[in-house]
Structures are given as structure tokens and as C-alpha cells.
Amino acid sequence: MAKVIAITGMSEVLANLKRHQSTTACGVERGLKRAGLFLQRESQKIVPVDTSNLKNGAFTRKTGGSGFNADVVVGYVADYAVFVHEDLQAKHKLGKQAKYLEQPARENRNEMIRIVKREAQR
Fold first, then answer.
1. 112 has pLDDT over 70
2. pTM
3. At what angle do helices 109-121 and 10-46 cross, to 10 degrees?
4. In this predicted model, what pLDDT tens digit does every residue of 8-67 receive, in sequence order?
5. Cα gap 50→90, rounded to integer Å
6. Which residues contact 76 (CB under 8 A, 6 or more apart)?
7. Domain locations in the chain?
8. Where are the alpha helices (DSSP H) in the chain?
9. 53 exposed, middle or buried (CB, 10 Å; 0-12, 13-18, 19+)?
């Protein structure tokens, strides 16, 4: 036989959840931007430098959405950035390399997740 249980206070619980969801979403967006800036800094340490045009063209920006749906892009504006990034046969100065964006993203994945998590919890 089924029992009927009356639960009170659900409107307050739902209101609290909604309030925290909004705060957390703002934190996630802030964290994505900070993680993007972190990736940009790490990338600039190994980006090939001849004239500084490529390195100086690094950017991190929010391109759309907000909260949990925010889009943050890290990239380089130089026309030849993709070519340099993908040319694994090119010779670069010591400490510089192709895959200057991809490698730091892979190596620092956990740190970037921690950055977003820390901001979401603030």
C-alpha cells in the first residue's frame, strides 16, 4: 500500500537552487575566461618567434553565450598561425615549437579544469 507524504518548503528549496545555479553559472563563465588566459600564457612560452607578430597576436575572448553556455576562444590572429601550428617539419629555436596551442592545452587540461571549478565554487 502506498503512503502519501506531504513535503513542505519545496518552494524555498527550489528558489535556493535557482539562486545558486545563477551564481555558479557566472563563476563558470569567469573560470572559462581565466582558464583561457592561462592557456594563452602557457602557449606564448613556446610559440615560435621570428618577428613577434605571431606571439603578439595571441588573444583570449568570450565569443558568445553566457554562464554554463559561455564560449571562450584562445587563438592567434596572424594569417599564418595555423600553418606554423601544423608544420611539424619546420625547425624552430630551442624551446619553441609547432603545436604551440594544442600541446599546452593537453598538458594543462587538469589545471584548466581546476581553474574553472575554483571560480564556479566562489
1. yes
2. 0.84
3. 140
4. 787 887 787 787 888 899 999 999 999 999 999 999 999 998 889 999 999 999 999 999
5. 13
6. 47, 54, 57, 58, 59, 85, 101
7. 12-121
8. 10-46, 53-56, 81-86, 102-107, 109-121
9. middle
